[in-house]
Amino acid sequence: MKIQQALISVSDKRGVLEFASGLAAMGVQLLSTGGTAKLLRDAGLAVTEIGDYTGFPEMLDGRVKTLHPKVHGGILARRDVPEHLATIAKHNIPTIDLVCVNLYPFAATVAKAGVTLEDAIENIDIGGPAMVRSSAKNYAGVAIVTDPADYAPILAEMEHHGGGLKLETRFGLAKKAFTHTARYDSMIANWLTGLETGAELKPADAAPTPSLFPDNLQLAFDRVETLRYGENAHQSAAFYRDTTALPGSIAAYTQLQGKELSYNNIADADASWECVKVFQAPACVIIKHANPCGVAIGATLVEAYEKAFQTDSTSAFGGILAFNGEVGIEIVDAMNTRKHFVEVLIAPLFTDEAKAALASKQNLRVLVVPMGSDLNTLELKRVGGGLLVQTPDNFTAQLDHLKVVTRTQPTAQQIEDLIFAERVAKFVKSNAIVFCGNGMTLGVGAGQMSRVDSTKIASIKAQHAGLSLAGSVVASDAFFPFRDGVDVLAEAGAAAVIQPGGSVRDDEVIAAADEHGIAMVFTGARHFRH
Q1: Which tens digit of pLDDT belongs to each residue from 222-277?
Q2: CATH 3.40.980.20, applies to 5-199
Q3: 3 state DSSP class of 244
Q4: How far apart are alpha carbons 369 and 270 in whole angstroms?
Q5: Rg (alpha carbons) of the chain, rounded to whole number
Q6: What mean pLDDT value characterizes the chain?
Q7: 289 tagged catalytic
């Protein structure tokens, strides 16, 4: 079916002039509204204003312009139903075969500081979604275009199909269109239901503050790929990307080589990437089964890698390896020297020499992820019949957060290592105990029901690695409920400990640290990770 008439009305005008010019060159008649019509006319294209087409002017400050039978009749008439075609012919309504619409910028409007409820309401599109949905419903006879990225492919296909589009293409455009309007409505619903009670009663120039937790939460994700299986082979799985995901999140990865990513690969890659990003100095993180088994900083990435690998070389086998800087050939050589098999290697950049050397490891998944900001607004966790939603744990201890609570004062070096240890503990499953020293992990105890058991496991890990805990520092993700945890870490050789504090037995725990001559600092912030 040849496209003879197109209606173009867009808020986002990227590429629309070129698209309209391409349609006109194929003999397509153009209808348009307001600013879009002016843009096309100023470029020398023949275009009919929608008010002239319907015989009814735009009114109510543009609220009513395309809500007219001559528009929707031309869109919704089924081309395979003679009665439909006879009806529109009786009323002198030609068919509209292509509709190019994108909607008022509601998201951009409400993202502005100080936006008022009135501004937000006036940026809720009515006619646009109506045309999009009408066109998508009648995809058998109408092509609906909502994404500027589709302009060039559509023109190319029309050129090769006598000015028409395949049914497959029109159906694909319809699916994208319904997704487009659903997400648009979801943005509006999330924002409006997040407003405080009585927001509509405030002065017109008042700027309401929407809640992070709207009454009705609508979510939008795009499937990136279907995975081979889930956590286990009998489970099915897929990976979806948040439509608002920012550069810097693991979802922004580009895979350079290797096998397809698995469910567990992506989960562990996220853990390693989130951890390595908190360090400013060259850093390396090795993750195994969602927990760091080696984390270190150094003067170079190679030094950081060597120290991280030393923490637990056994667990590092088959782990996920992440760096916060450019990976060069020296990193690859160091991995080869240690015969270090990893499932996934992540960095913001790789040198050409490193890429060439890694190419021989055909199964190794190599991911490039930019270092940009990605502070997620909300974290989501599915539970039976519901969804847990929280703000992310973005707290990272700084020097001015630390409160020394013992008679023994930490040294400057211990302070550096305590802050390092606290940053690692944040990414260890609770209960978490992390021994550190000289910018590296020495022993990691993760996921135990007892904090004392986590301390013992961390000590055992250090012994197996041949690392001394004498003079080490320790981070605990939560407070010590009893003094026994302090007794165990002191016995292991720790000289300083960082913890949030807040136990009803803090005095007892501090007294234990004083007895052992250990320096203890509080941060006031817990880092449970479940």
Answers
A1: 899 899 899 999 999 999 998 877 788 899 899 999 999 999 999 999 999 999 99
A2: no
A3: coil
A4: 11
A5: 30
A6: 89
A7: yes
Does 340 have pLDDT greater than 90?
yes
Please report the pLDDT score of residue 373 as a whole number: 65
- Rounded to whole angstroms, the Cα distance separating 109 from 284 reads 40
Contact 58, 75 (CB under 8 A): no
| pLDDT for 198 beyond 80 | no
Domain 399-522 sits in CATH at 3.40.140.20
**Among 13, 289, 355, 401, which one carries the catalytic annotation?**
289
pLDDT at 6: 92
Q: How far lies 498's CA from each of 253, 413, 511, in Å?
A: 34, 14, 15
**DSSP per-residue letters across 65-119:** SS-SHHHHHHHH--TT-HHHHHHHHHTT-----EEEEE---HHHHHTSTT--HHH
Q: Is the pLDDT of residue 509 over 80?
A: yes
Specify whether the CB–CB gap between 483 and 508 falls below 8 A: yes
Contacts of 349 (CB under 8 A, 6+ apart): 325, 326, 327, 368
Is 137 designated active site?
yes
Per domain, the residue ranges of the chain are 5-199, 247-368, 399-522
* Catalytically annotated residue among 84, 137, 202, 361: 137
Q: Which fold has domain 247-368?
A: Cytidine Deaminase; domain 2 (3.40.140)
Which comes out higher in pLDDT, residue 104 or 431? 431
Secondary element (H or E) of residue 329: helix 329-337
Would you say how long the chain is, in residues?
530
Q: pLDDT tens, 299-310?
A: 999 999 999 999
User: Which residues contact residue 265 at a Cβ distance below 8 angstroms, ignoring those fewer than 6 apart?
Assistant: 320, 343, 344, 365
